[in-house]
Amino acid sequence: MTGEAELDAMIDRLRKLPDLARQCAPECARVVEAEIARTAAAGTDAYGKPWAPKKDGSGKPLAHAIDAVGVAAVGTSIVVRVTGVEARHHLGRVKGGTQRAIIPTKDIPQPMAAALRGVINKAFLRVMANG
Predict the structure, then answer these.
(1) Are 91 and 68 in contact, with CB atoms under 8 Å apart?
(2) Which residues are registered as beta bridge partners of 81?
(3) How far is Cα 51 from Cα 27, in angstroms, rounded to an integer?
(4) Taking the CB of the first residue and of the last residue of the chain, which one, N or C, has fewer CB atoms within 10 A?
(5) Are the CB atoms for 125 and 3 separated by under 8 Å?
(6) For 94-99, which contacts have Cβ atoms below 8 Å and span 24 or more sequence positions?
(7) Cβ–Cβ under 8 Å, residues 69 and 102
(8) In terms of Cα–Cα distance, which of 124, 116, 117 is closest to 29?
(9) How many CB atoms are closer than 10 A to CB 49?
(10) Which residue has the higher pLDDT, 51 or 3?
């Protein structure tokens, strides 16, 4: 490949980068949902803080929390939503006021950020290597 052809190929690859976020969004949504499922299964909020135990001491609180979580890619954004009684627990708007946060509400938790970085890096390298 000549120098000019190499430069043209590189420019073509760079032109594909603006669409990278939209291409990565569906896989990023799956990663976000998997991370929320992982922390919910562990009985913690998205940052690793354990949920308060059930008042009667029986079983695990919010055993089916992930069933109330919806995650979707909308353009270049990831939308996360909690519905049902789990949403009230998430906000602490249940009898007794016990809050059991399910989804991230501040910064992106480190494990989730690392997983998202992996998805984006993989896509970036694919575009830059293959065009």
Answers:
(1) no
(2) 70
(3) 28
(4) N
(5) no
(6) 96/55, 98/52, 98/55, 99/52
(7) yes
(8) 116
(9) 11
(10) 51
The two three-digit tokens of residue 109, written as one number: 């938790």
> Half-sphere exposure (CA, 13 Å, Cβ side) for 6?
3
What whole-number distance in Å separates Cα of residue 24 and Cα of residue 121? Answer: 10
Question: In the block, which residue shows the tokens 């949504």?
Answer: 29
In this structure, which amino acid lies at residue 104?
P
* Position 57 confidence tier, pLDDT thresholds 50, 70, 90: confident
Tokens representing residue 32 in the block: 């976000």
CA pair distance 66, 69, nearest whole angstrom: 5
Assign 3-class secondary structure to the chain.
CCHHHHHHHHHHHHHHHHHHHHHHHHHHHHHHHHHHHHHHHCCECCCCCECCCCCCCCCCCCCCHHHHEEEEEECCEEEEEECHHHHHHHHCCCCCCCCCCCCCCCCCCHHHHHHHHHHHHHHHHHHHHHC
Residue 5 pLDDT > 90: no
